[in-house]
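User: Let's play a game. I give you a shape written as tokens, and you guess the letters that built it. Ready? Here's round one.
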């Protein structure tokens, strides 16, 4: 049995993971954390209709109590929240599955350094298994001639706070790695001719789209377009629980990726 504490339990992603974990054999939800101002703090997960469980929803002031009996802490919150929460969890020696995105590069590396020597943790900007296979497939595009231009288009629901998505940023880092791009252009307006040394990332925020990422690699006479579409948030929840199972069996502290989890 893997005992999990879910932070962001009342959010779009956290509540999806929580429901999946409650239904799945081999998992037990022992902690649920929301923001300090959540009006439902103190209510049980049954009261909230999230899960048939007496576990109480708590604020981050009671984080230590919420993770105390957990094997794995699963986070889908905000970068501000995790700058405080993650060090507490790591100091308590609890394993981590980190889904929260939107950190500055500096904050992310500081957090990773802090955690890496204490506990095993899986950090992934996207837990969908297909997206992680896409990360791998992408490197075969390096065979394309130098003159080919690469762009990324990502679409998400209008409630998403950060842009570009963490997944688009990772796709961009992989492409920039083999193309040698040093600059990224985020959208265009007015006179804005494309230069050969830049990557282009376009973000769309509309309706309830769970997540679409498209990589465009265009030459003068042909274009390759590779698209990944998530039909439902359950795809991320499934991947996060898969990562939780993997990290539960991992004894060596360190920050791992879905590549490690999937053996890619
Ligand atoms: N890695 C992936 O596969 C993946 C997939 C989808 C989304 N994401 C990322 O996951 C994160 C959450 O996305 P979402 O759409 O679920 O956002 P959301 O609906 O806004 O949920 C955010 C949650 O964080 C909670 N929260 C805020 N401050 C907190 C704190 N100090 N301690 C504990 N919880 C706190 C909020 O509580 P209240 O309800 O009380 O405000 C809410 O439950 C984002 O960074 C998003 O980009 C990752």
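Assistant: Ready! My guess for every position:
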């Amino acid at each position: 049995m893997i005992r999990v504490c879910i932070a962001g339990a009342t959010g779009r992603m956290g509540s999806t993971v929580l429901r999946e974990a409650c239904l799945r054999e081999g998992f037990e939800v022992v902690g649920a954390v929301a923001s300090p101002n959540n009006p439902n703090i103190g209510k049980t997960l049954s009261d909230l209709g999230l899960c048939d469980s007496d576990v109480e929803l708590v604020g981050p002031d009671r984080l230590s109590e919420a993770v105390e009996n957990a094997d794995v802490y699963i986070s889908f919150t905000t970068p501000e929240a995790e700058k405080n929460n993650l060090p507490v969890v790591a100091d308590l020696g609890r394993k981590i599955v980190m889904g929260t995105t939107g950190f500055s590069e500096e904050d992310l590396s500081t957090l990773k350094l802090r955690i890496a020597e204490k506990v095993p943790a899986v950090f992934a900007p996207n837990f969908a298994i297909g997206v992680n296979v896409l990360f791998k497939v992408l490197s075969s595009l390096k065979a394309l001639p130098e003159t080919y231009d690469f762009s990324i288009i990502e679409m998400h629901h209008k409630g998403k706070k950060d842009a570009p998505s963490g997944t688009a940023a990772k796709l961009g880092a992989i492409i920039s790695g083999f193309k040698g791009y040093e600059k990224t252009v985020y959208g265009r307006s007015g006179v804005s001719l494309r230069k050969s040394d830049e990557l282009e990332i376009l973000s769309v925020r509309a309706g309830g789209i769970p997540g679409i990422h498209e990589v465009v690699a265009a030459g003068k006479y042909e274009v390759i377009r590779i698209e990944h579409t998530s039909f439902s948030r359950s795809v991320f929840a499934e991947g996060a629980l898969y990562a939780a199972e993997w990290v539960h069996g991992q004894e060596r502290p360190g920050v791992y990726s879905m590549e490690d989890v999937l053996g890619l």
